[in-house]
Amino acid sequence: MKVGLFIPCYIDQFYPQVGIATLQLLEKLGCEVGYPSGQTCCGQPMANSGFEHLTDGCNHLFTDHFKDYDYIVGPSGSCVLHIKDHLHVADNEKAATHIRQHIYELSEFLTDVLQVKQLTARFPHRVGIHQACHGQRGLHLSQMTELVGQPFSKPQQLLNMVNGLELVELSRADECCGFGGTFCVFEEAVSVKMGKDRVEDHIQHGAEYITSNDVSCLMHMEGILRRQNSPVKVLHIAEILNHG
Question: Is the pTM of this model over 0.85?
């Protein structure tokens, strides 16, 4: 299958190793991966701030670059959800619809499309999963604890395949970290307090690493960990699944 690699702008600028790990992992699993070098921001920051009417340029550019791929895969639940819910192009809606119906967050693509049953990765560490809100509540990558239903987690399903990895059980499995995009700017104090609480849950349960499928959440928690001089590190799930 022909897969278009969608790397959000903040990953490209600050965490390029996540994009590289995503590419390597997909290729290990037999995908033919293309990276449209002209891709830019998907438009989520503008839409989240109430300016979705200014995202036409982003929508056209995204559609032009990804319209010919069988699937589009990105290592960011929030950016993928934005495209899935909001990509519309008046003069090329057929292509936009194809993209909306074939774009996947990485762990979702691995479990639902490739149906991965085993991995060669090895990561002998205690790891806590941060269930990012967009992935959990928008893309339904895991069950919300307030609902009565069979628990599931696509990221956890994949991490359970990693040799030597020990998942730690948290007190609040799906609590928000407080990042929330522009929320962390306009409500800084609340955002920081939420982040400290989220980090503390992992620390109290002995996590050496915090992982997630959204780098924005990890970036927020990494800043808190560094200011606390904590030895706990953050890693995107792609980096762990591609490790070893």
Answer: yes
Task: Please provide residue 180's backbone torsions phi and psi, each rounded to the nearest 5 degrees.
Answer: 60, 30
> CA separation (Å) from 33 to 37, 42, 79?
13, 19, 19
190 CB-near residues (< 8 Å, 6+ apart): 178, 183
Question: Residue 34 gets which letter from DSSP?
Answer: E
The tokens of 138 are what?
């928008």
Q: 23: which 2 tokens?
A: 């590419």
Identity at 166, one-letter amino acid code: E
Q: Which two tokens stand for residue 53?
A: 């009417």
Q: Label residues 3-13 b or e (16+ Cβ within 10 Å = b).
A: bbbbbbebbee
Q: What is the pLDDT of residues 146-201, one digit of tens each?
A: 888 888 999 999 999 999 999 999 999 899 999 987 788 888 999 999 999 999 99
- pLDDT at position 148 is 85
CATH 3.40.1350 fits 126-241, yes or no: no
User: Which residue spans of the chain are classified as CATH 3.40.50?
Assistant: 126-241
User: Is 50 or 93 the better-scoring residue by pLDDT?
Assistant: 93
Contact present, 240 and 165 (Cβ < 8 Å): yes
Quick one: pLDDT band at residue 1, thresholds 50, 70, 90? confident
Structure tokens belonging to residue 166: 């020990």
- Structural element, H or E, at residue 234: strand 233-236
